[in-house]
Amino acid sequence: MVSPTSQFPHSVKPVPAGEIRSYDFETDVLVVGFGCAGAAAALEASEAGAAVTLLERASGPGGSSALSGGEIYLGGGTPVQAACGFTDTARDMAEYLIGALGPDADEEKIRLYSDRSLEHFEWLVAQGVPFRNSLWDSPTWVPPTDDGLMWMGEAAWPYNQHATPAARGHRVQSEGFGGKVLMDRLVEAVSARTGTEVHSDTRALRLIVDDTGRVCGVIARRFGEDYAYRARRGVVLTTGGFVDNEAMLAEHAPELVGSAKVSDGGDDGLGIVMAQAVGAAVRRMATGQVGIQTIPGYMTRGIVVNGHGQRFINEDVYPGLVGIEALYRQNMDVWVVLDEEAFEDVPEAERWGLRPTHVAETVAELEKEMGLPENALQHTVAEYNRHAENAEDPWFHKAARWLRPLRAPFAAIDVRLGMAPPEGAAVGGNGAAVFTLGGLATDTEGRVRDLDGGPVAGLYAAGRASSGLHGGGYISGTSLGPGTFFGRRAGRAAAGVQQ
After folding, report:
1. Residue 444 to residue 323: CA distance in whole angstroms
2. CA distances (Å), origin 289, targets 8, 174, 318, 320
3. What's the rounded Cα separation, in Å, for the pair 56 and 238?
């Protein structure tokens, strides 16, 4: 078995504080990682009166947060929702997330995040994060406009049976992907409103523990030299996930091996492994977000089938849930089947250069071109069309808005093949673009838990270094949103604030 630490050319075991002759730097709260969660932790720890030092392995802040689409999952009746005509509640938001992020989603964290969603929206705005009061009403990965609200599958079955649907995908206003704007605003806030010392080009290597087992600092390396950092109150790990560590993927999430990686290249899992070395527990390490190489607008207007020509999901769910089904249960042998009307109905700006893999005048011809069993796709399309004539889908309950019979000519898109990617997107050999969701087990205050369920004294985590809200599912916006929210809570807890 390959060790998950074999990629690191150094020990990850903790250093006893008694072996440190002197500290090179001392602070109250030491934050490791300057993405959105790290920025939020630094802002709140500073607001609580703590001296803060922030370590970033790259030459500047941002990390994977800056490469993201900029979607933040918020609800409960935000001003953006109200301006777009939605009435929403924290309960409905929580019930949707519990279903869509399951199975085994963290209900305690979800309910807290939902209950505090309005306050978190206001906090983001106070940091200068912009949102436009307008809705993009078509299914997409990222809107081609600067609209501030989008659907994340809330109206899809079965989730609409348990919670009143409302659009909750709040997108940072920007041209193109919004993650860079989010990070620009948070970095500006850290610089202008705090006395945080930022040490870039500095990579944390090992935790320091005192004779009681409390984490009290970090050994970090900068330009080949090692430095000892003392944290008088706490260390907050916001170091990202482990999608860039092939050994850790093989150990914990083998289904993700071979896919393209959605990352800045620094998600090597070192923060997680350093914490494990002091007894930290981990949660949901096998899970991941899976983006597939197709357009949500094509899926909703057509059908999605597997290598047997069979539908396996309602196509109007959040597209990442289709991706999870495709990778984990269909081995990426997945096709989108549509007709000319469906193709033309998707605005050009949303197509991202994607073109059909096969085109045919009849379903039988298309089926043969796709290499499917004879009559398999023909039966699926005939059954779909029969019910779509009456705007019904008894098999998978796709919303009537998207139901109509498919007519010749037909096309099929193989999600394993490449397409012209949008800004910042990754394309993999198997058609999937992934990042990890599992990480350190934490409570609602960001305290890292040990194997007995108690806290690892002095150690906190947020963002993708922790397991977040997720069970087996993922919705866009549940990285940046909870990352900043629980980053804030971890920063305050590390500073000694009772919450």
Report:
1. 29
2. 25, 23, 12, 7
3. 10
How confident is the model at residue 274, as a pLDDT? 97
pTM of the model: 0.95
CA distances, 175 to each of 43, 132, 148, 168, 477 (Å): 26, 12, 11, 20, 18
Give 54's Cβ-side CA count (13 Å radius).
31
| Cα distances (angstroms) measured from residue 464 to each of 7, 15, 238, 294, 344 | 19, 25, 7, 25, 38
314, 305 Cβ separation under 8 angstroms: no
Q: Name the stretches of the chain with pLDDT < 50.
A: 1-2, 419-428
Per-residue DSSP letter, 287: -
CA angle 451, 457, 458 (to 5 degrees): 130
Asked whether 404 and 396 are in contact (CB, 8 A), the reply is: no
Q: Which residues, 6 or more positions from 211, have their beta carbon under 8 angstroms from its beta carbon?
A: 16, 17, 18
Please give the pLDDT value at position 6.
59
Separation CA 58–CA 379 (nearest Å)? 54
**Per-residue confidence (pLDDT) for residue 4, from 0 to 100:** 55
Q: Minimal CA–CA distance to 338: which of 417, 415, 406? A: 406
Separation of CA 121 from chain center = 18
For 66-102, give the DSSP string.
GGS--EEE--SS-HHHHHTT----HHHHHHHHHHHT-
Contact 442, 467 (CB under 8 A): yes
Q: Alpha helix locations (H) across 277-422?
A: 296-301, 319-330, 340-345, 363-370, 376-388
pLDDT at 381: 98
- How does pLDDT run across 319-372, given as a tens digit for each residue? 999 999 999 999 999 999 999 999 999 888 788 778 899 999 999 999 999 999
d(CA 442, CA 281): 9
**In this predicted structure, what is the pLDDT of residue 424?**
43
Cα gap 97→109, rounded to integer Å? 11
Query: Per the structure block, which two tokens stand in for 116?
Result: 């505090």
Position 170: which residue type? Answer: H
